[in-house]
Protein backbone atom coordinates (compact mmCIF):
# COMPACT_ATOMS: atom_id res chain seq x y z
CA UNK A 1 0.00 0.00 0.00
CA UNK A 2 1.08 3.58 -0.65
CA UNK A 3 1.86 5.87 2.26
CA UNK A 4 0.36 9.36 1.93
CA UNK A 5 0.03 12.54 3.96
CA UNK A 6 -2.93 14.90 4.07
CA UNK A 7 -4.52 17.58 6.29
CA UNK A 8 -6.38 16.15 9.25
CA UNK A 9 -10.18 16.32 9.37
CA UNK A 10 -12.70 16.07 12.23
CA UNK A 11 -13.36 12.46 11.19
CA UNK A 12 -9.78 11.63 12.21
CA UNK A 13 -10.24 12.71 15.82
CA UNK A 14 -10.80 9.28 17.45
CA UNK A 15 -7.54 7.97 16.02
CA UNK A 16 -5.72 11.24 16.72
CA UNK A 17 -6.81 11.18 20.37
CA UNK A 18 -5.41 7.64 20.58
CA UNK A 19 -2.07 8.62 19.05
CA UNK A 20 -1.74 11.84 21.05
CA UNK A 21 -2.40 9.98 24.30
CA UNK A 22 0.48 7.65 23.43
CA UNK A 23 2.54 10.74 22.68
CA UNK A 24 1.70 12.31 26.05
CA UNK A 25 2.50 9.06 27.86
CA UNK A 26 5.93 9.00 26.18
CA UNK A 27 6.63 12.49 27.56
CA UNK A 28 5.34 11.47 30.97
CA UNK A 29 7.82 8.59 30.95
CA UNK A 30 10.62 11.16 30.55
CA UNK A 31 9.54 13.14 33.64
CA UNK A 32 6.33 12.26 35.49
CA UNK A 33 6.23 15.59 37.35
CA UNK A 34 7.03 17.97 34.50
CA UNK A 35 4.83 16.11 32.01
CA UNK A 36 2.06 15.15 34.43
CA UNK A 37 -1.05 13.88 32.65
CA UNK A 38 -4.34 15.65 33.23
CA UNK A 39 -7.03 13.52 34.86
CA UNK A 40 -9.18 14.04 31.77
CA UNK A 41 -6.33 14.01 29.24
CA UNK A 42 -8.30 12.34 26.37
CA UNK A 43 -11.10 14.89 26.75
CA UNK A 44 -8.61 17.78 26.75
CA UNK A 45 -6.97 16.46 23.58
CA UNK A 46 -10.36 16.10 21.88
CA UNK A 47 -11.37 19.61 22.93
CA UNK A 48 -8.16 21.11 21.50
CA UNK A 49 -8.51 19.15 18.27
CA UNK A 50 -12.14 20.14 17.83
CA UNK A 51 -11.22 23.80 18.16
CA UNK A 52 -8.21 23.47 15.85
CA UNK A 53 -10.10 21.62 13.11
CA UNK A 54 -13.46 23.39 13.20
CA UNK A 55 -13.37 26.82 14.86
CA UNK A 56 -13.45 30.09 12.94
CA UNK A 57 -11.45 33.15 13.98
CA UNK A 58 -8.61 31.32 15.69
CA UNK A 59 -5.92 33.48 17.39
CA UNK A 60 -3.16 31.97 15.21
CA UNK A 61 -3.00 29.70 12.18
CA UNK A 62 -2.33 26.06 12.95
CA UNK A 63 -1.99 22.98 10.80
CA UNK A 64 -2.56 19.29 11.53
CA UNK A 65 -1.42 16.66 9.05
CA UNK A 66 -1.72 12.89 9.22
CA UNK A 67 0.15 10.06 7.53
CA UNK A 68 -1.83 7.12 6.18
CA UNK A 69 -0.67 3.63 5.31
CA UNK A 70 -3.62 2.24 3.42
CA UNK A 71 -6.64 3.12 5.56
CA UNK A 72 -4.69 3.37 8.83
CA UNK A 73 -3.41 6.66 10.27
CA UNK A 74 0.16 5.98 11.37
CA UNK A 75 1.34 9.43 12.39
CA UNK A 76 0.43 13.04 13.04
CA UNK A 77 2.26 16.37 12.99
CA UNK A 78 1.14 19.72 14.43
CA UNK A 79 2.42 23.11 13.29
CA UNK A 80 1.49 26.75 13.75
CA UNK A 81 2.46 30.27 12.77
CA UNK A 82 4.33 31.65 15.77
CA UNK A 83 3.57 35.30 16.68
CA UNK A 84 6.72 37.39 17.13
CA UNK A 85 7.04 38.66 20.73
CA UNK A 86 6.64 42.47 20.77
CA UNK A 87 10.20 43.24 21.96
CA UNK A 88 11.72 41.54 18.88
CA UNK A 89 11.93 43.01 15.40
CA UNK A 90 10.68 39.98 13.51
CA UNK A 91 12.18 41.28 10.28
CA UNK A 92 11.90 37.72 8.91
CA UNK A 93 8.13 37.69 9.56
CA UNK A 94 6.27 35.16 11.65
CA UNK A 95 8.22 31.90 11.83
CA UNK A 96 6.51 28.56 11.51
CA UNK A 97 6.69 26.25 14.51
CA UNK A 98 6.35 22.47 14.56
CA UNK A 99 4.99 21.58 17.99
CA UNK A 100 5.98 18.70 20.28
CA UNK A 101 2.60 16.95 20.03
CA UNK A 102 3.65 15.20 16.82
CA UNK A 103 3.75 11.41 16.96
CA UNK A 104 4.38 8.23 15.00
CA UNK A 105 2.74 4.86 15.66
CA UNK A 106 5.19 2.07 16.46
CA UNK A 107 4.29 0.32 13.20
CA UNK A 108 4.62 3.44 11.03
CA UNK A 109 6.55 2.66 7.82
CA UNK A 110 10.04 4.00 7.28
CA UNK A 111 9.93 7.56 5.98
CA UNK A 112 6.72 8.53 7.82
CA UNK A 113 8.41 11.22 9.91
CA UNK A 114 10.06 12.69 6.83
CA UNK A 115 6.77 12.73 4.92
CA UNK A 116 4.93 14.46 7.75
CA UNK A 117 7.73 16.97 8.18
CA UNK A 118 7.61 17.84 4.49
CA UNK A 119 3.83 18.30 4.67
CA UNK A 120 4.11 20.60 7.69
CA UNK A 121 6.93 22.63 6.12
CA UNK A 122 4.94 23.06 2.90
CA UNK A 123 1.92 24.31 4.84
CA UNK A 124 4.06 26.76 6.81
CA UNK A 125 5.82 27.97 3.65
CA UNK A 126 2.48 28.61 1.95
CA UNK A 127 1.37 30.53 5.04
CA UNK A 128 4.39 32.83 4.65
CA UNK A 129 6.96 31.39 7.06
CA UNK A 130 10.49 32.23 5.92
CA UNK A 131 12.03 30.67 9.03
CA UNK A 132 10.91 27.39 10.54
CA UNK A 133 11.24 26.20 14.12
CA UNK A 134 10.77 22.65 15.36
CA UNK A 135 10.40 21.29 18.89
CA UNK A 136 10.87 17.81 20.28
CA UNK A 137 10.90 16.11 23.67
CA UNK A 138 11.04 12.34 23.86
CA UNK A 139 12.64 9.82 21.53
CA UNK A 140 15.10 10.07 18.69
CA UNK A 141 12.79 9.88 15.68
CA UNK A 142 11.91 13.56 15.44
CA UNK A 143 15.35 14.80 16.48
CA UNK A 144 16.91 12.70 13.73
CA UNK A 145 14.36 13.89 11.15
CA UNK A 146 14.88 17.54 12.07
CA UNK A 147 18.67 17.31 11.99
CA UNK A 148 18.59 15.54 8.61
CA UNK A 149 16.49 18.40 7.24
CA UNK A 150 18.82 21.17 8.32
CA UNK A 151 17.46 22.15 11.74
CA UNK A 152 19.95 23.28 14.39
CA UNK A 153 19.29 23.81 18.14
CA UNK A 154 18.16 27.36 18.91
CA UNK A 155 16.58 27.25 22.37
CA UNK A 156 16.88 24.76 25.21
CA UNK A 157 14.21 24.21 27.83
CA UNK A 158 15.81 22.90 31.00
CA UNK A 159 13.80 21.55 33.90
CA UNK A 160 14.13 20.55 37.53
CA UNK A 161 11.46 18.58 39.36
CA UNK A 162 12.90 18.52 42.88
CA UNK A 163 12.74 22.14 43.99
CA UNK A 164 13.28 21.50 47.69
CA UNK A 165 12.32 24.04 50.35
CA UNK A 166 15.41 26.20 50.79
CA UNK A 167 13.50 29.48 51.18
CA UNK A 168 14.25 32.89 49.69
CA UNK A 169 17.99 33.65 49.36
CA UNK A 170 19.33 36.75 51.14
CA UNK A 171 19.34 39.91 49.05
CA UNK A 172 16.61 38.86 46.62
CA UNK A 173 13.29 40.65 47.04
CA UNK A 174 9.99 41.19 45.32
CA UNK A 175 10.18 43.95 42.69
CA UNK A 176 8.34 47.26 42.99
CA UNK A 177 7.47 49.91 40.43
CA UNK A 178 10.66 51.77 41.39
CA UNK A 179 12.64 48.78 40.08
CA UNK A 180 11.19 48.85 36.56
CA UNK A 181 13.80 51.26 35.09
CA UNK A 182 16.61 49.09 36.45
CA UNK A 183 14.97 45.92 35.12
CA UNK A 184 14.65 47.56 31.69
CA UNK A 185 18.32 48.60 31.76
CA UNK A 186 19.40 45.04 32.57
CA UNK A 187 17.01 43.77 29.89
CA UNK A 188 18.90 45.86 27.32
CA UNK A 189 22.06 43.93 28.27
CA UNK A 190 20.16 40.65 28.15
CA UNK A 191 18.79 41.38 24.68
CA UNK A 192 22.24 42.30 23.39
CA UNK A 193 23.58 38.94 24.56
CA UNK A 194 20.68 37.22 22.81
CA UNK A 195 21.35 39.07 19.56
CA UNK A 196 25.08 38.34 19.76
CA UNK A 197 24.27 34.65 20.13
CA UNK A 198 21.87 34.61 17.18
CA UNK A 199 20.43 37.45 15.03
CA UNK A 200 17.10 35.63 15.29
CA UNK A 201 16.65 37.71 18.47
CA UNK A 202 16.92 41.08 16.72
CA UNK A 203 15.49 43.74 19.03
CA UNK A 204 12.49 45.87 18.02
CA UNK A 205 13.19 49.66 17.93
CA UNK A 206 10.46 50.16 20.55
CA UNK A 207 11.62 47.27 22.75
CA UNK A 208 12.43 49.43 25.79
CA UNK A 209 9.03 51.14 26.23
CA UNK A 210 7.24 47.91 25.35
CA UNK A 211 9.24 45.92 27.88
CA UNK A 212 8.78 48.64 30.50
CA UNK A 213 5.02 48.58 29.99
CA UNK A 214 4.97 44.80 30.29
CA UNK A 215 7.07 44.84 33.47
CA UNK A 216 4.79 47.47 35.01
CA UNK A 217 1.77 45.34 34.18
CA UNK A 218 3.50 42.18 35.45
CA UNK A 219 3.72 43.76 38.89
CA UNK A 220 -0.09 43.71 39.04
CA UNK A 221 -0.48 40.06 37.97
CA UNK A 222 -1.21 37.73 40.89
CA UNK A 223 -0.06 34.56 39.15
CA UNK A 224 3.69 35.36 39.09
CA UNK A 225 6.59 36.61 41.18
CA UNK A 226 8.87 39.33 39.81
CA UNK A 227 12.08 39.42 41.87
CA UNK A 228 15.23 41.52 41.81
CA UNK A 229 18.68 41.58 43.39
CA UNK A 230 20.14 44.85 44.65
CA UNK A 231 18.83 48.33 45.30
CA UNK A 232 16.59 50.06 42.75
CA UNK A 233 19.28 52.60 41.87
CA UNK A 234 21.86 49.84 41.26
CA UNK A 235 19.81 46.82 40.26
CA UNK A 236 22.01 43.76 39.77
CA UNK A 237 19.58 41.35 38.17
CA UNK A 238 16.00 40.18 37.83
CA UNK A 239 13.96 37.01 37.39
CA UNK A 240 10.27 36.33 36.80
CA UNK A 241 8.67 33.11 38.02
CA UNK A 242 5.45 32.67 36.06
CA UNK A 243 2.93 29.91 35.34
CA UNK A 244 3.37 27.50 32.45
CA UNK A 245 1.39 28.04 29.25
CA UNK A 246 0.05 25.86 26.46
CA UNK A 247 2.74 27.10 24.08
CA UNK A 248 5.15 24.59 25.60
CA UNK A 249 2.79 21.99 27.03
CA UNK A 250 0.27 20.07 24.89
CA UNK A 251 -3.31 19.83 26.22
CA UNK A 252 -2.94 16.32 27.66
CA UNK A 253 -0.72 17.66 30.43
CA UNK A 254 -1.68 19.23 33.75
CA UNK A 255 0.37 22.42 33.98
CA UNK A 256 -0.99 23.78 37.26
CA UNK A 257 2.08 22.63 39.19
CA UNK A 258 4.72 23.79 36.69
CA UNK A 259 6.41 27.18 36.65
CA UNK A 260 8.33 28.79 33.79
CA UNK A 261 11.34 31.12 33.91
CA UNK A 262 12.00 33.12 30.75
CA UNK A 263 12.96 36.67 31.81
CA UNK A 264 16.12 36.07 33.86
CA UNK A 265 19.37 38.03 33.77
CA UNK A 266 22.39 39.01 35.90
CA UNK A 267 25.62 40.66 34.64
CA UNK A 268 27.51 37.50 35.59
CA UNK A 269 25.88 36.01 32.48
CA UNK A 270 27.01 38.82 30.16
CA UNK A 271 29.72 36.63 28.66
CA UNK A 272 27.75 33.85 26.97
CA UNK A 273 30.84 31.68 26.66
CA UNK A 274 31.97 31.43 30.30
CA UNK A 275 31.28 32.52 33.88
CA UNK A 276 34.28 34.81 34.22
CA UNK A 277 32.59 36.83 37.01
CA UNK A 278 31.35 33.90 39.09
CA UNK A 279 27.72 32.89 39.51
CA UNK A 280 26.66 33.80 43.06
CA UNK A 281 24.05 36.37 42.01
CA UNK A 282 22.73 34.24 39.18
CA UNK A 283 22.28 31.28 41.50
CA UNK A 284 20.56 33.45 44.11
CA UNK A 285 17.98 34.65 41.56
CA UNK A 286 17.38 31.12 40.33
CA UNK A 287 16.86 29.79 43.86
CA UNK A 288 14.50 32.69 44.57
CA UNK A 289 12.33 31.69 41.60
CA UNK A 290 12.31 28.09 42.80
CA UNK A 291 11.27 29.22 46.28
CA UNK A 292 8.46 31.25 44.74
CA UNK A 293 7.26 28.18 42.85
CA UNK A 294 7.37 26.06 46.01
CA UNK A 295 5.34 28.71 47.85
CA UNK A 296 2.70 28.39 45.13
CA UNK A 297 2.59 24.61 45.43
CA UNK A 298 4.48 23.93 42.20
CA UNK A 299 6.77 20.93 41.80
CA UNK A 300 8.66 21.64 38.58
CA UNK A 301 10.54 24.57 37.05
CA UNK A 302 11.02 24.99 33.30
CA UNK A 303 13.71 27.48 32.17
CA UNK A 304 14.08 28.97 28.69
CA UNK A 305 17.71 29.33 27.57
CA UNK A 306 19.33 29.91 24.16
CA UNK A 307 21.34 26.90 23.04
CA UNK A 308 24.39 29.12 22.53
CA UNK A 309 24.35 30.67 26.02
CA UNK A 310 26.93 28.33 27.52
CA UNK A 311 27.46 30.27 30.76
CA UNK A 312 23.74 30.32 31.56
CA UNK A 313 23.45 26.61 30.79
CA UNK A 314 26.34 26.02 33.21
CA UNK A 315 24.48 27.85 35.97
CA UNK A 316 21.35 25.83 35.33
CA UNK A 317 23.09 22.47 35.16
CA UNK A 318 25.03 23.21 38.36
CA UNK A 319 21.65 23.83 40.01
CA UNK A 320 20.34 20.44 38.90
CA UNK A 321 18.56 21.31 35.65
CA UNK A 322 18.50 18.98 32.64
CA UNK A 323 17.39 19.52 29.05
CA UNK A 324 13.69 18.64 28.74
CA UNK A 325 12.86 20.07 25.32
CA UNK A 326 14.71 21.56 22.35
CA UNK A 327 13.55 24.11 19.80
CA UNK A 328 15.59 24.01 16.58
CA UNK A 329 15.71 26.44 13.66
CA UNK A 330 15.88 26.08 9.89
CA UNK A 331 16.63 29.23 7.95
Descriptive notes:
Strands 1, 2, 3, 4, 5, 6, 7, 8, 9, 10, 11, 12 and 13 form a 13-stranded mixed sheet that branches. It is built from eight helices and 13 strands. Helix 1 packs across helix 2 and helix 5 crosses helix 6. It is α+β, with helices and mostly antiparallel strands and 331 residues long.
CATH topology of the largest domain: Aminopeptidase
Taken from the alpha-carbon principal axes, the silhouette is globular
- Name the CATH architecture of the largest domain: 3-Layer(aba) Sandwich
Structural class designation: alpha+beta
Quick recap:
By secondary structure, the protein is an alpha+beta fold. The protein has helices at 13-30, 41-54, 112-126, 141-148, 180-197, 207-218, 280-295, 310-318; strands at 3-7, 62-69, 72-81, 96-98, 103-104, 132-136, 152-160, 172-174, 225-229, 237-243, 258-265, 300-306, 322-330.
Amino acid sequence: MTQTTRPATPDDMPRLVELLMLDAEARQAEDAILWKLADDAPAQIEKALTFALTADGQPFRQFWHVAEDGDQITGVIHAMMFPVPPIYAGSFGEPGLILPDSFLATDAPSGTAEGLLAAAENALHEAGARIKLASHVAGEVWRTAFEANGYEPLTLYLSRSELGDQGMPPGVRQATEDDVPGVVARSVENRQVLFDIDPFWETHPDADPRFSAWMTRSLTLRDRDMMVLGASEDLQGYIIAQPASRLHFPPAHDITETGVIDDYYHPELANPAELDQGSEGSHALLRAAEAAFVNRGMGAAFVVCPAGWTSKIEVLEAAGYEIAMVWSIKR
